[in-house]
Write a structure and sequence with these properties.
single chain, 189 residues, transcription regulation, sequence-specific DNA binding, WRKY_plant, transcription
């Protein structure tokens, strides 16, 4: 089975090389000082050769055995490219982002369940950020949070009609004389 896979992969590489060489030959003929009829004949033949290579590659790739080792390597590579960071905190839900819980699991040897979250904007803004939250066994007031991926949704961005957070703090800070005024108007300067 492993030998078949090696042979199929070698044939795929050879066909890809044939595609590349055919494309080079086609461009050389087009650039060369040949008659129009010869150029057209070369173009037709190279087109048929490329089409044959493409069909054969397609058939080989669909028949190539997918070993569990190949799937495992792909999964490891995908995980290696994502950003992972761990944090221990007493407030795992106050991190400035919005999350949607999509599962929980009780792990072997653990007292508390692990909860799994993805960014609320994973669908409409294609944000791939995820996090896992689990209470610490020794100190149940602390949580271990594992973040995977970076936020690409930018949910905290301000638009023209929103007040930036620094202006909000200034607007609600009481003056030094002890009085307090809070204004909820739709315009500000």
């Amino acid at each position: 089975m492993e030998t078949d896979s090696l042979v199929v992969n070698a044939v795929i590489r050879e066909l890809q090389q044939a595609q590349h060489l055919t494309a080079q030959l086609r461009s050389l003929v087009e650039l060369g000082d040949y008659s129009y009829a010869l150029k057209e004949s070369a173009k037709v033949l190279s087109g048929e050769l490329l089409q044959t290579c493409n069909l054969t590659l397609s058939k080989l790739k669909s028949q190539a055995p997918k070993s569990s080792m190949m799937k495992q390597k792909r999964k490891q590579l995908a995980h290696a490219h994502s950003v992972v960071r761990k944090q221990v905190t007493a407030a795992p839900y106050d991190d400035g982002h919005q999350w949607r819980k999509y599962g929980e699991k009780l792990l072997k040897g653990c007292i508390f369940k692990r909860s799994y979250y993805r960014c609320t904007y994973s669908g409409d803004r294609r944000c791939q950020a995820k996090k896992q939250v689990q209470k610490q066994a020794g100190t149940p007031t602390l949580f271990e949070v594992i973040y995977e991926g970076e936020h690409t949704c930018n949910p905290m961005s301000t638009t023209d009609h929103e007040m930036p957070p620094s202006d909000i703090l200034t607007a609600i800070s009481p003056p030094h004389d002890g009085s307090f005024l809070l204004h909820f108007g739709s315009t500000y300067s």
